[in-house]
Structure to design on (234 residues):
């Protein structure tokens, strides 16, 4: 997950 | 209906003018477009009915395995009506065979024209195109699935929507025909990913972080 942090962040953003 | 409503407006390419090398300019422009398309795709995925009911891990897995397939449905869709044999990556980024070849993307060109020709022959409707894009993501065969039941429900919902749509048009064979196009879509996306990984390994172009991260998941 650490390796894919941009995707992780984008999915967690509410919009 | 929800998929038609949430379909993002097409992006325009930002023409790179940092170099006089035409092929390099094409690649830089294309990679920038691809990176922005990815950002939009992730926002779009969250609006597909059922997607947000998946675990975060599964959402990531589906996007990591299916992003290129979903993006290529869009390219093939836009290229259907193109004059000649161009690939329409954006309204202002249309590449013909010679341009693709010069940029080292001859293989990608050939695969994408094949896919485009298939959809053109089928006379794909907008409803079918948006549903196929969502199905490609849902069906991306990610190797580790956290919650198979939720994923199954997600896939079934999309399948049902497609069946209902085709039934309303009295097209009993269309659903099957569309699903039978998925192997070619997978194959085309694999070739596209290989082409971009090759560009990256040869350090032909600097890739944006998100694109790199998504390619990395495929490497």
């Amino acid at each position: 997950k650490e390796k894919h942090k941009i995707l992780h962040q984008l999915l967690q953003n509410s919009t | 209906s929800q998929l038609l409503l949430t379909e993002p407006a097409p992006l325009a390419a930002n023409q790179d003018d940092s170099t006089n090398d035409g092929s390099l300019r094409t690649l830089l422009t294309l990679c920038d477009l691809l990176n922005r398309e990815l950002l939009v795709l992730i926002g779009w995925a969250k609006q597909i009915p059922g997607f947000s009911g998946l675990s975060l891990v599964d959402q990531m897995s589906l996007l990591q395995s299916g992003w290129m397939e979903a993006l290529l449905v869009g390219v093939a869709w836009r290229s259907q009506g193109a004059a000649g044999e161009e690939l329409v990556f954006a309204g202002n980024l249309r590449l013909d065979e010679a341009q693709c070849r010069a940029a080292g993307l001859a293989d990608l060109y050939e695969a994408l024209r094949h896919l485009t020709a298939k959809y053109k022959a089928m006379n794909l409707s907008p409803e079918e195109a948006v549903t196929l894009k969502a199905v490609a993501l849902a069906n991306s065969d990610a190797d580790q699935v956290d919650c198979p039941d939720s994923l199954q429900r997600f896939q079934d919902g999309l399948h049902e929507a497609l069946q209902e749509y085709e039934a309303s048009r009295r097209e009993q064979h269309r659903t099957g025909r569309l699903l039978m196009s998925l192997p070619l879509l997978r194959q085309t996306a694999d070739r596209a990913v290989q082409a971009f990984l090759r560009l990256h390994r040869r350090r032909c172009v600097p890739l944006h972080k998100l694109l790199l991260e998504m390619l990395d998941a495929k490497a």
The mean pLDDT of chain B is 95. The longest helix of chain B spans residues 22-45. The two ends of chain B are 35 Å apart (CA to CA).
